[in-house]
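Quick one before lunch.
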Amino acid sequence: MTEERPKKEKSVFIRTYGCQMNVYDSERMAGLLKPLGYSSAETPDEADLVILNTCHIREKAAEKVYSELGRLKKLKAAKQKRGGDMSIAVAGCVAQAEGAEITARAPQVDMVVGPQAYHRLPELLARAARGRGDILETDFAVEEKFDRLAARVAEGPTAFLTIQEGCDKFCTFCVVPYTRGAEVSRPVEAITAEARMLAAQGVREITLLGQNVNAWCAAAPAGSAGDAQWRLGELCRHIALIDGIDRIRFTTSHPRDMDGGLIRALGEEEKLMPYLHLPVQSGADKILKAMNRGHTADHYRRLIDRIRAMRPDIAISGDFIVGFPGETSEDFEETIALVAEIGYASAYSFKYSRRPGTPGAAMPKQVADAEKDARLGRLQALLDSQRQAFNEGQIGKIMPVLLEKPGRHKDQLVGRTPYLQSVHVSAPKSMLGLIASVSIKGVTPNALAGALTKEGEAAA
Ligand code: SAH
Ligand code: SF4
Ligand code: F3S
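Model of the iron/sulfur cluster complex:
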């Protein structure tokens, strides 16, 4: 007679670096491992499996992974000394870019799995258990990836939903086309099924994700009127029909793919939030050309004008790179002038980081680091003052705030305005997941402070 062995409880700790697409992937990896008996560990110390879901976008991001691997090496050795063990997997964009170099540099790593191959993690774990060393999986298998993922379990009232993977733009500074592969759009049916699954679990806000989310394009569902091919505007309107979904966002958009249909949807579809992340990178045409962005600064200005004409209250956010090769102080002044003209509600700005294998890395006239620092400092001061002014402009307004998570203080919740600003509100936990009416009272460096209106309190 064979004795029934109790199923051993295992746990996984996933650390996520980089963009929202990695956040989405980490959640899906956790979902994939659950049926194999892996619960989520709070810290790497107690985990049987540690996954680093990595980012390769700038040198610093990639280097962080190796310092974390150094810490994990010690942890693993200590555990092994006590008779235990710990497996280490490197996933994400560093895994894709560096592949076997990772295990060569960090032999404590058991598995390397790229961003379009992590659905094969269960097989990799089985192979690792059989002691097959050097486990590397870096195929681009986007369609298979989404088909093989387990059902989703919502983690709160907001959720990310990847609709598009990869990038064909090849900006000369960027690693993404190499780490994520070619642009692939998921079909409408798969996206709406996932959105419905999330709505049924109480998700109220969905953020559609893609490195070039507005390049999304797929066949219209059978029997639908209108164009045979849908673009993002149509998809957003379609998702807006799902009961329970009250807010839709999408990120990241590329200026070249902002078509009229999407701009009209931003103006007409109330569930589309008035916030648009539209990176421009630089305000100088010479630099935009060298970056292979495929548009000029004036094209970007006209685009913003058209979007604001359709949705006057829209909050614009952007990404900027200072010190791209060949950027002179005059070129940089053009970036400052563009920022002053557009007025950003929020923005991310970076010093150019030379990435191996990208065309920018080999360009002449690299800018000195001290110069990059000075330019970044000036740009960030301007962007900070714009963000502060935008936030202060909300004081006295009453806004619908989606209450997303508990705050640091007792009876405090943190939510988001339609413009994606964080708001701290005194409200009972029972209101989590509601869209409450909140009066904005003040601003702190990173958030707004608000109070429930009488109407909002009535909902409590
Ligand atoms: N797909 C998005 C963003 C991708 S990466 C887009 O096209 O806008 C996010 C941001 O990182 C970029 O917008 C850019 O500002 C920054 N970035 C990318 N590569 C970089 C590099 N080599 N050095 C510095 N910043 C970089
Ligand atoms: Fe990178 Fe450019 Fe593609 Fe964005 S559009 S992911 S910046 S190559
Ligand atoms: Fe980083 Fe990869 Fe995202 S390089 S920004 S994690 S697509």
